[in-house]
Amino acid sequence: MSKLTDRAKKLKTDIPAVFLALKEKRTPWYAKIIAAVVVVYALSPIDLIPDFIPVLGYLDDLIILPALIAWCVKCIPDEVFMDCRRRAEGMWGNGSPEKWYYAVPFVLIWLAVIALIIMAFT
Questions:
Q1: How far is CA 94 from each of CA 56, 64, 73, 114, rounded to the nearest angstrom?
Q2: Residue 118, C-beta contacts closer than 8 angstroms, at least 6 positions apart
Q3: CB-CB contact of 84 with 75 (8 Å)
Q4: pTM exceeding the 0.90 threshold for the entire prediction
Q5: Which domain does 23 fall in, by range?
Q6: 101 falls in which pLDDT band (50, 70, 90)?
């Protein structure tokens, strides 16, 4: 298995683990702020660098997101993150989170933004 495939599998576990750490009481407040940024950025359909830009468009997926996750993991105590990573192991077993309803706030925010844009131009 390639190194890139291993990193992708690790990200698939680390993103839900960061989300679980965000809700964990043992996570320091500053790590929770970073974790919130990571989760919002990972789930947001808007990227810092749009994907339609050749080569550069995928930099956020290959560099920015893993860097944010690494920074977040360094701020969370090891025992807390290992516990969160263990609980996150099966969260995305079928390719999507088991608790899909966590996406509802993001969908509602984007629907509100779209509605405001439509209202502004009509």
A1: 29, 25, 24, 30
A2: none
A3: no
A4: no
A5: 3-121
A6: low
**Lookup: tokens for 12:** 């698939």
The encoded tokens of residue 89 equal 């192991």
Domain count, the chain: 1
* Residue 27 near residue 21 (C-beta atoms within 8 A): yes
Kindly state the DSSP code that residue 79 receives in the 8-state scheme. Answer: H
CA nearest to 43, candidates 116, 93, 92, 81: 92
Contacts of 66 (CB under 8 A, 6+ apart): 7, 11
Nearest to 80 by CA among 20, 11, 15, 37: 20
Residue 74, amino acid: K
- 29-88: per-residue pLDDT in tens? 999 999 988 888 777 766 666 677 777 777 767 788 888 899 999 999 999 999 999 988
Q: Which residue has the higher pLDDT, 97 or 35?
A: 35
SS3 label, residue 8:
helix
